[in-house]
Amino acid sequence: MLSMLKLLTITLLLNSVLFAGTSNEAVEKYLEKNFKSNPNILALKVKVVDKMSLEKLKGWDALIVSVEATVKAKEENREIKQKMIWFTNGTIITQELTDIQTGDSLKELVSPSFKNEYYKKENLLYGNANAKHKVVIFSDPLCPFCRGYVPKAIQEMKKSPDMFAVYYYHFPLPSLHPASIELAQAAIAAELKGEKDVILKLYTVEVDARERDVSKILAAFNKALNTDIKPADLTSEAVQKYNKGDLSVAEDVMIQGTPTVFFDGKIDKTKRLYEKAK
Prior knowledge:
Layout: H1 2-9, E1 16-18, H2 24-35, E2 41-53, E3 61-71, E4 78-88, E5 92-94, E6 124-126, E7 133-139, H3 144-158, E8 164-170, H4 179-192, H5 198-202, H6 214-225, H7 231-234, H8 237-252, E9 260-263, E10 266-267, H9 273-277
């Protein structure tokens, strides 16, 4: 995906240019015009899906832009879909804004909101759907930080079902932890079979994060959860649909790493807002 992003981005003549108008339509037309200058892009759709003001920089807005494209490739054309962040103050549009005092990119402060349609019944782990607060966790069960943070946070919020509705979304990181792909699918399969507390038990599975042998991964999973999940369960239509649904939501809200936490629809960089709410 990173290479596709670069392929799209290099079509821009300048990273920061004069720009007339701040309407979403004007931004979309400008970006489409510049992207289409790349002959490898055969079809393109650009849409501003979210817009937010920057608290640290008055007069500037951050735009979340969805890009769908058909890109020419040697063997077969590729369909890509991804989101990008742009900034504008009405006369300039740019992809980068940096705090001169800290050196931090302002992109770190931008995140799409977690919309109501993303709160899916099947992802409600604990608590009441109409609880006072909604907490969303995207996690990889083999991420070292996740293994320390996620079970503890879930256990704490689980005690207060009217205070917290806890939603969990699988987001394995295959480049770092290949085994997490099958573990996530196994967890989904177990939940669909009616097993309880699957996610909490998932973080007790002991397996090499780089393991690629499905039989070994499932042996470790079944041992920890006392289940009998088989390779065929991972490829079932129901499991794959659930898995793709989680990844689709992750893409929509631009998840890059784990754990990523949303509190009442807004990203929680501290991952500790649930403690203050209690």
